[in-house]
Design brief:
Layout lengths: L6 E5 L5 H16 L5 H10 L1 H9 L4 E5 L2 E9 L2 E7 L8 H15 L4 E7 L3 H9 L3 E7 L8 E8 L2
Parallel strand pairs: 4-5
Antiparallel strand pairs: 1-2, 2-3, 3-4, 5-7, 6-7
Helix pairs in contact: 1-3
Length: 160
Amino acid sequence: MPSALDIAVRRARADDDPVLRAILHDTYESTWRPQLTPAAAQAFRDEDRPAAYVAARGGQFWIAERDGEVIAFVDWEADFVNALHVRSAAARTGAGRRLMDQAEAGIAAAGFAAARLETDTFNTRARAFYAARGYREADRYPDTEWDSGLTTLLLVKALR
């Protein structure tokens, strides 16, 4: 079985955009869509949120690849991790861990004492992943992005 050592981490390039959009669609289908109202799912399709997100932020992403295949990405700004997405077929391979190591190092190097991120209460796999990394719940509030009655958790980790 491949290990996290087989994963290369690098900055995203413009030619990665199609696979980054595909990863977002994959994680949407495997994680988010089952939790959403039909109206929220339709809005996701109508707005093509993966294309809009990659167009707006893709140049800031760090990606993980194995054997030349992009399998995951992380996006952060200042002290906030906007997104960590791992292709469902690459879950539990160490890609998420390697990317969060990169994000946390970048956040610390920028002078921030803590990293922040959000996940939803239903996402038990993400919650367990972040808890194992030392993230603790700092707040919870209604998830307004999806308009589906979900609850968002703000998680914080001290970096020093």
